[in-house]
Amino acid sequence: TVYNIIGHFYTEQNKHHPRLLLCAHYDTRPWADEEENYEDRYMNVPGANDGASGVGVLLEVARQISLLMADSALTMPVDIVFFDCEDMGTPEFFTGVEREDTWCLGSQLWGMRRQENANAPVYRFGILLDMVGAPDAVFPRELYSQQFANNYLEEVWRTADRLGYGKYFINQTAYPLIDDHYYVNTLGGVPCIDIIHYDARSATGFPAWWHTREDDMRNISHETLQAVGEVVMAMVKK
């Protein structure tokens, strides 16, 4: 069973306006399949960065949005979606016949349900946060984000640069990544970008502790979380 958690933020004045979609996945990988020792690969991943960092940022964003609502200062309605089962993709040690589309099950469900709902909300665009807490995080311009929502990607990156966070939001392009935003775009029909830590210098493109038991609070920086949160809030306030 897949459980997506959805919060709606709007005022009576703007509840029928196009919304901003903010999202992250809240599940963590049930297999640490990047561990060197084979026996350790059946352990759970703590997911401090890969999962919890995006959720943590959006929980604080939700608190800030509530303050705007209390002051009648929320100009654009916002939906926050925490997707389930993003990290359920087939483990690397699996030796059977692999099924397609085993990643991002929550966003696939969200997109399909949206297709079935004639009264589904209208979204201006969406922002996905994934792995946004590392001390040395860099967020390149992911290729699917450019393909489906380049205008919004440019707007977010310009905002980050204006706020002094250009060292995180770098002007480099990353490979196309199958993440929740892919299905938000293709199944949900919502232009959505992915703010995700990706480093082409590593073997996997992700930090050394990605999908291992080392993905814990030792690899979380409040400065990085602050930077991402301020950029997202700047988009909320536009």
Blueprint (SSEs and pairs):
Layout: E1 5-9, E2 19-25, H1 52-70, E3 78-83, H2 105-116, E4 123-130, E5 141-142, H3 143-162, E6 173-174, H4 180-186, E7 192-196, H5 222-236
Parallel strand pairs: 2-3, 2-4, 4-7, 5-6
Antiparallel strand pairs: 1-3
Helix pairs in contact: 1-5, 2-4
Q: What can you tell me about this protein's structure?
A:
There is one protein chain. With 238 residues, this protein is an alpha/beta fold. The chain is 31% helix and 15% strand. It has five helices and seven strands, in the order ββαβαββαβαβα. The chain has helices at residues 52-70, 105-116, 143-162, 180-186, 222-236; strands spanning 5-9, 19-25, 78-83, 123-130, 141-142, 173-174, 192-196. It has a five-stranded mixed sheet, with helices on both faces. A two-stranded parallel ribbon has the order 5-6. α1 (52-70) packs across α5 (222-236) and α2 packs parallel to α4. The longest helix is centred in the middle third of the chain and has 20 residues, at 143-162. The protein is globular.
Strand percentage lies at 5-15%
Total of DSSP H or I helical runs spanning 4+ residues = 5
Quickly give the structural class: alpha/beta
Gyration radius from CA atoms, angstroms: 17 Å
Mean pLDDT over the residues: 96
Strand count, sense and barrel status of the largest sheet are: 5 strands, mixed
| Spatial order of strands in the largest sheet | 1-3-2-4-7
Shape: globular
